[in-house]
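Thread: quick sanity check before group meeting

JM: Hey all, I'm pulling together slides for Thursday and realized we never actually wrote out the predicted structure for the chain we discussed last week. Dropping the sequence here so it's in one place. If anyone has concerns about the input, flag it before I start.
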Amino acid sequence: MAEDPRFEWKQCLILRSDIKMSCGKSCAQAAHAAVIASDKADTQTKKKWLQEGQKKVVLKVSGDRALFELKVLAENAGISTGLVQDAGMTEVPPGTVTALGLGPAKSDILDKITGNLSLL
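JM (edit): ok, ran it. Output follows.
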């Protein structure tokens, strides 16, 4: 049997579970977070992550405070972040913080920051 691929790099996308968003809206917010965070990553990190297949993990937190705390922890570790504030055109009020993208970054470093979070 073939060995499972090892991903050295990944991106974590974190959504708030305390606000009501449709599945499509949640997907869009995660996509926004992914783009914002990856755009801020350094060229070498992004290149390695892209070559490896762009692994992403989608997680959840209970509120915006948790997103801000994770953002600070990631930035202190040198990880790119992307905080999403919605424009308020569809399902949530304008300015609502909906999601956070972390990385791409080394998987083991992200695990230290997000390892206690549940999958979405």
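AS: nice. The chain has one domain: 9-119. The helical segments are 23-40, 43-52, 64-76, 107-114.
JM: adding both to the slides.
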